[in-house]
Amino acid sequence: EAGVTQSPTHLIKTRGQQATLRCSPISGHTSVYWYQQALGLGLQFLLWYDEGEERNRGNFPPRFSGRQFPNYSSELNVNALELEDSALYLCASSLAPRGGNEKLFFGSGTQLSVL
Amino acid sequence: QKEVEQNSGPLSVPEGAIASLNCTYSDRGSQSFFWYRQYSGKSPELIMFIYSNGDKEDGRFTAQLNKASQYVSLLIRDSQPSDSATYLCAPRGDYKLSFGAGTTVTVRA
Lengths: 115, 109
Known about the structure:
The structure holds 2 protein chains of 2 kinds.
Chain A: E1 5-7, E2 10-13, E3 19-24, E4 31-37, E5 44-50, E6 53-57, E7 64-68, E8 74-78, E9 87-94, E10 105-106, E11 110-114
Parallel strand pairs in A: 2-11
Antiparallel strand pairs in A: 1-3, 3-8, 4-5, 4-9, 5-6, 7-8, 9-10, 9-11
Chain B: E1 4-6, E2 11-14, E3 19-25, E4 33-38, E5 45-50, E6 54-58, E7 61-66, E8 71-76, E9 85-91, E10 103-108
């Protein structure tokens, strides 16, 4: 069974540009989560989607947005890139949450570098 | 106050020793916890899930949960160099979907 897949593996952009990151969850998982992990820092929660709806959002500016498609795959968009957006972006998926987060299965991440 | 706090590492232990990792949480509604392990340059992977007060053992790993004290810990017995990683604590049922900052463990051969 395929795990969570993310693309691209690496992405290099310049300040002010837009970045689009993609994630495919494990088959059968309806929830997708996005996290940012800057170098040497912990996981910062960005967004949670379930059944096509945004369920929760972390403390990030509106230029971080996303969506979930009918096949449960997801896209994270970062507009007006800033240097401090350089980080590893991790996507995770889980079964439908009953009361918050369930066991998360993470993808390998997209390393975004903003020059 | 952060919702989940972990002991700040890094934690260095000799091979064969016990590594003890702690996690405290501020939300009294948190009833169960996950422990994830993240190797350097890799993504986190789930290693333990505990939902009852007391101990849960899985191989060399023991998770301990004390709901009254809002404290969960992870013990790694007979530590091996392959245990060198960052360990993350996360409460289940947390709509903020927060993780602790993690404790980095280094096992010295």
